[in-house]
């Protein structure tokens, strides 16, 4: 029998690029022969591109143990040194998966691959730590940053975003000042992040001053994101005339308003009870060729639900479908929340059960809305059913809602359902100590000592 012919590095890379299944791609990489007989690995089969392709596929699929094996194999290569971008991507994969320690580890190991670290991998690490919420590790790392690389505008933008995420406004201003001291000019991302944070905290005077300074002092013209942030701040305090004036300023500066701008204005009009003006905005959107998207429709749905006009909200859903804009889970969650707040739990439950037929999969927010709503309406048996499904899907209920359900069952003396609920909470590892203490106290107070004993047994089983 003739020996099977090995794939060339070029052919292997071509096949890897076309293979969508990461598991099959890995099998192909590990055995790049035309038959299924394992062959001794020959490093000459693998090009830098093939390594890059398989690492990317495994990282996107979160197959990190397999990706680590490929990285270990890459470390043994002597024919070439991998470029830094490969490690930037790996760090980003770990960041998206909320694995900060692995991101730090691969950053430390970059030199062992005969690759020089620059500000690119440094920024990738900082961004991964930011995504993971590891702010303390970010700051500790930044203190000695000079020994790794010289920070650039992107570095400071990541720090600015971290400050704004935590609403550390004083620290955000310090980041801007340090950029000036080091001669690193802030860019539109820097300014947009700071202005967004100022507007979120309703420090609109400072935000508008910074907007003017963007062009006058820093030579950076305001972007559409800056205008949208300012409009959101103005809408929150009911200054719609100023918000509309900003929109006109955008148009004058040849910045075309997008759906986010109009959605912000629509939400503001609904908040002030001026829904009659919304249709004029929708006509203007059409004139500018700005197509309504899910965000715009959701703003309208939210507005109608705030006014308790659920019939109009449902009509918006129907219009979305007619216009080819598929409602998302947020569209339905807004209506579910509105119905539950109005005590229309039966209607909300009907809509919730109808979501799969409508092509929408309920998310954790959907379940929490229904569970909280049913508890508030004292529909404890229905709430227990939702709780069981919620726990089964790996979600956790809001602590106060779970406490309210248990308290209600204790007061009603429904010991059988109470035991079922406690079991569900125990299975989900979300049975809090204070809730359990409340159960023991209330049941003991009613002198149902045997029931207390049974409940203690239930807890011990969990």
From TrEMBL:
Pfam families: PPR, PPR_2
Entries under InterPro entries matching the protein: PPR_rpt, TPR-like_helical_dom_sf
Domain of life of the organism encoding this protein: Eukaryota
PROSITE patterns named among the record's database cross-references: PPR
Record-level Gene Ontology MF annotations: mRNA binding
PPR repeats mapped onto the chain: 152-186, 223-257, 258-292, 293-327, 328-362, 363-397
Calcium is among the record's keywords: no
UniProt keyword annotations, A-Z: Repeat
Similarity comment: family membership: Belongs to the PPR family. P subfamily.
Family matches, as NCBIfam families: PPR
Protein name, per record: Pentatricopeptide repeat superfamily protein
Organism the protein comes from: Prunus dulcis (Almond)
Lineage start: Eukaryota, Viridiplantae, Streptophyta, Embryophyta, Tracheophyta
């Amino acid at each position: 029998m003739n020996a099977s012919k090995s794939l060339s590095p070029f052919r292997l890379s071509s096949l890897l690029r076309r293979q969508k299944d990461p598991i099959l791609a890995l099998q192909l990489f590990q055995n790049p022969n035309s038959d299924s007989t394992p062959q001794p690995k020959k490093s000459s089969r693998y090009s830098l591109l093939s390594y890059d392709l398989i690492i990317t596929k495994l990282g996107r699929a979160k197959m990190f143990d397999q990706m680590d094996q490929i990285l270990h194999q890459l470390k043994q290569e002597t024919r070439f040194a991998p470029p830094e971008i490969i490690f930037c991507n790996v760090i980003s994969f770990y960041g998206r998966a909320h694995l900060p320690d692995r991101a730090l580890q691969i950053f430390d190991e970059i030199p062992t691959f005969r690759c020089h670290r620059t500000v690119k991998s440094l920024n990738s690490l900082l961004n991964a730590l930011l995504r993971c919420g590891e702010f303390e590790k970010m700051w500790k790392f930044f203190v000695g940053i000079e020994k790794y690389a010289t920070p650039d505008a992107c570095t400071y933008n990541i720090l600015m975003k971290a400050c704004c995420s935590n609403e550390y406004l004083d620290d955000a201003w310090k980041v801007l000042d340090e950029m000036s001291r080091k001669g690193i000019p802030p860019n539109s991302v820097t300014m947009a992040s700071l202005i967004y944070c100022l507007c979120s905290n309703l420090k609109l005077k400072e935000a508008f001053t910074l907007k003017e300074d963007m062009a006058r002092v820093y030579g950076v013209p305001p972007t559409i994101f800056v205008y949208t942030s300012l409009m959101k701040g103005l809408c929150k305090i009911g200054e719609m005339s100023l918000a509309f004036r900003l929109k006109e300023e955008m148009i004058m500066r040849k910045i075309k308003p997008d759906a986010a701008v109009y959605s912000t204005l629509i939400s503001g009009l609904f908040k002030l009870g001026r829904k009659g003006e919304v249709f004029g905005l929708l006509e203007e959107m059409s004139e500018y060729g700005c197509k309504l998207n899910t965000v715009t429709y959701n703003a309208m749905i939210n507005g109608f639900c705030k006014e308790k006009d659920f019939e109009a909200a449902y009509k918006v859903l129907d219009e979305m479908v007619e216009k080819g804009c598929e409602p998302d889970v947020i569209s339905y969650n807004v209506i579910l929340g509105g119905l539950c707040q109005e005590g229309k739990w039966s209607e909300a439950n009907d809509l919730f059960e109808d979501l799969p037929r409508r092509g929408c999969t309920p998310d954790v927010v959907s379940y929490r809305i229904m569970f909280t709503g049913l508890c508030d309406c004292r529909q404890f048996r229905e709430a227990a059913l939702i709780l069981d499904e919620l726990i089964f899907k790996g979600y956790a209920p809001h602590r106060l809602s779970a406490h309210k359900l248990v308290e209600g069952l204790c007061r009603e003396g429904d010991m059988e359902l109470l035991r079922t609920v406690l079991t569900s909470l125990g299975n989900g590892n979300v049975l809090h100590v204070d809730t359990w203490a409340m159960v023991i106290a209330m049941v003991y107070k009613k002198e149902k000592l045997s029931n207390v004993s049974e409940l203690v047994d239930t807890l011990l089983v969990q």
